[in-house]
Amino acid sequence: MADLIIENLTIKYGEVTAVENLSINVPSGEFLTLLGPSGCGKSTTLFAVAGLNHATSGTIRVGDRILFNGDPKATVPPERRNIGLVFQSYALWPHKTVADNLAFPLILRKMGKSEREERIREALGLVEMLPYAERFPFELSGGQQQRVALARALVYRPPLLLLDEPLSNLDAKLRERARVWLRELQERLKVTTVYVTHDQSEALAVSDRIAVMSMGRMRQLGAPREIYETPADSFVADFIGSSNFLDGRMIESGVDHALVELGDGTRLTTAPGRAAADGSLVVAVRPERISVATAEGPNTLRAKVEQKVYLGSVWQYVVRSGPVEFRIQTTFEIDAPEVLLHIPAEACALFAETPVGN
Amino acid sequence: MTDLTDAGAKRPAFDRSRLIFWGVSLLTVVLVGGPILPIILQAFLDKPLYDAAAGFTLGNFGRLFSEPGVGRIFLNTLYFGALTMVIAQLFGAVMAVLVGRTNLPGRRWMGEVFIWPLFVSNLVIAFGWFTMYGPSGFLTLASRTYLGGAPWNLYSVTGMGIVAGLSQAPLTYLMCLAAVTKADPQLEDAARSAGAGPFRALWSVTIPMIRPAMIYSAVLNFVIGIEMLAIPLLFGGPSGIQTVTTFLYDKGINAAVRPEYGIVGAAAILLLIVVALLVWLQGRLMRGAGRFVTVRGKASRPSTLDLGPWKWAAFAFVFGFVFLTILSIFGGIFLRSVVTFLTPLIPIWKVLTTGNFELVLNSETYVRSIVNSVVVSVVGAAIGTFFIAVIALIARRSEFGFRRPLEYVALFPRALPGIIAGLGFFYAVIWMPGLDAIRGTIFVLILAFVVRYIPVGFGAIAPALAQIGEELDRGARISGADWWTTVTRIILPILKPALFSCYALLFIHFFKEYVTAAFLYQPGSEIIGTTMLQLVAQGDNGPVSALATIQVIITALFVFLARRLLGAKIYG
């Protein structure tokens, strides 16, 4: 298997910049997810790696093989990149049986019949679709088509596998099972994998590392836990999971902590961070990290319960303290009109700006 | 798994896809430009094109405008085209709404009959009208005998325009029918729940949505009107009425006797410019038609409207129309082919004969024209389908840098009237060295027909191509296939139904063609259309009707087989 190196990749369509100066190094055997809202450039990046759209500048390498380096003459066309790609719509050729779909890439590689059949059996076995070899795609369910698409991308043993939202057309239950299965298969084959999705829980569940993208730029690259717990900026904090954004003012900025005053006068000790030039900032804190306190103390505040929603596994409340409104989650019901809350210092991330769109 | 890092598909010795892009583009430019260039040159030359001593002049246009009666000719053409359009739009649209959206009795079979005229040439239609409604036509005489008079006169520009309009109504009908039946029924349902009655919902919601179809077919019918040869030739000829096409036809044919190259070139250019402008205008008008597009995922038919007691009135209207303008026309042709003399005054059985068919089948020339027609259609449609499919694939599914220009060039023949295409190829074959070998053969006919009908075939293939998700090509490319392998192994097999439809459409158009061939055929390469044109001019109505009948029968057989065996979609 091989590693994928993307350096300073920029993709422009006329005046529009779809991907700007993106650099990612995916080591051999890693499962990397490109995560972001639609239009963030994640699929554009993926298809540029596949050679199916034209990058403007930068370098794309697999191992020591240069696929793209900005010179159109040296750009390797998609058919010679030897990359496996699974499409969102699966793109199974409707006029070919499952076996013929898998045979096509092997025939193009001038592989003999017996070896071909061996490979097809092996690949269909991997995705547990062997009994369906002679079916046509329209005779398969969505989940089965998705497996065949994966088998087709793996049958010629590419060193790099690209997946473009392959689970988004499955229903919720099946999607959860498929992602576990997909991850297991990837670990078994140790194929370097780049996965594109806009579903954060999917990304958190399957990835070794996640690259969060927004408007053509990479905002943060890290392990799922790192992304979730220490978001690099307010966009990541907002996009991954759900966060309250509380406007505040920097009172004191230390090496290992900071002191912040919220709009209602409450002072919070928080993890260290930076404020804007005028001292204003936002405190990002996840609803499930805020707990109900039994006694007043540091980082507590009293809030009125304004709205209550039952979500099954948890209760969600909208609470207010003066001008500060935010959401909290509890596993038990709160009956009182007012509640004392504790916001742990390590649960607070400070950012200079509110996320775009908030 | 073993590592195969270096093993994509093998790099071919040369990039054949690129070769195909350039080769096909070059061929398209030559084929489309081929007939136009010599006409433009000829219009500005003072001697025949092939004369080395020819020099530049503007005098041809002066000579054209000083030609006696030329203003009349242009006015006739415009009036004729406009009337054709108005009549066709009026009847076509009304028919489409009645057949497509109401509970009109017999709408299924009448709707089917209504598109028959599209399968035959307007030469056949014109002959049918002449047989039934001409000065001594069957229905004219019947009306005169039993009703004391026949209030129509085909031998006038108005009469010609009405005939042409009625025979073009099916085209409007077809386009409007698609618009009214494919409209999203939810839109009308929404109007109903907002308080509109069924008529009101149809009138206010669905009828406005046929506007793009109306605009599109209106310009198309106007263009067809001004480039139509058969009707002005048959009905205008005897009374001395000329249009631009008959002028070009007469002058062009007579060019052998009295060299009038310059005038012909000048008139041809003017016609070409007018038609090109109209086609451009059509494109302009169709811009923003997207707001009328309602075809979305779910395939459900809109409900039919109950006409109540009016349905019999509507039936009488539609049946009268179908009977008088289609059934009687085809009937007249068939009837004329089995009698020596067609008149309501003598009982049919007294004049029955097989003589017309015997005459045709015993004549080497006539049989040859039938065989040639079949060969040109069978072979030509196959060549055309392949060529057009490759053009469409390059234009819509390749990374070729000039794919947009290629599509423009390929679709330009929409603006190329048949008579000009014929004239242009005629010049080109004389003018370009080496082409003399195919002069007067059926090859040049196939070539001219293919070029003329690229847009027709393209129209059959492009929408189907758009239905095939691009990720299917991308999947093939990433699997290791180059462009040409992707096209031949993945896209064309999936495109098969559309290719059959394209083949069927081209076959029908080639089989009924006569205008484009008028200047191009020579003894040995005549086709049914040109032979009929010649016979009509001589007034040999017996063999004309026999040939027309044979043409209709072969066409009907072909349409039946193509629909049954190939599942080809031909007009709906």
From TrEMBL, chain A:
Occurrences of domain ABC transporter (ranges): 4-240
Matches recorded under Pfam families: ABC_tran (PF00005), TOBE_2 (PF08402)
Any single GO CC term annotated in Swiss-Prot or TrEMBL for this entry: ATP-binding cassette (ABC) transporter complex
SUPFAM superfamilies tied to this protein: MOP-like, P-loop containing nucleoside triphosphate hydrolases
GO MF terms held by the record: ATP binding; ATP hydrolysis activity; transmembrane transporter activity
Gene3D superfamilies linked to this entry: 2.40.50.100, P-loop containing nucleotide triphosphate hydrolases
InterPro entries the record matches: AAA+_ATPase (IPR003593), ABC_SmlMolc_Importer (IPR050093), ABC_transporter-like_ATP-bd (IPR003439), ABC_transporter-like_CS (IPR017871), Mo/tungstate-bd_C_term_dom (IPR008995), P-loop_NTPase (IPR027417), Transp-assoc_OB_typ2 (IPR013611)
Transmembrane regions listed in the UniProt entry: none
Coiled coil feature spans: none
Key words, A-Z: ATP-binding, Nucleotide-binding, Transport
Any one GO BP annotation for this protein: quaternary ammonium group transport
UniProt key word Ion transport: no
Protein name (database record): ABC transporter ATP-binding protein
Organism: Cereibacter changlensis JA139
High-level lineage: Bacteria, Pseudomonadati, Pseudomonadota, Alphaproteobacteria, Rhodobacterales
Automatic annotation (TrEMBL), chain B:
Alphabetized UniProt keyword annotations: Cell inner membrane, Cell membrane, Membrane, Transmembrane, Transmembrane helix, Transport
Subcellular location, record wording: Cell inner membrane; Cell membrane
Annotated ABC transmembrane type-1 domain residues: 74-282, 370-562
Membrane-traversing stretches: 19-41, 78-101, 113-132, 152-180, 218-241, 261-281, 312-335, 370-394, 406-430, 442-466, 487-511, 542-562
Keyword Transport: yes
GO CC term, one of those recorded: plasma membrane
Family indicated by similarity: Belongs to the binding-protein-dependent transport system permease family.
Name of the protein this chain belongs to: Iron ABC transporter permease
Domain of life (superkingdom): Bacteria
Biological-process GO terms, alphabetical: transmembrane transport
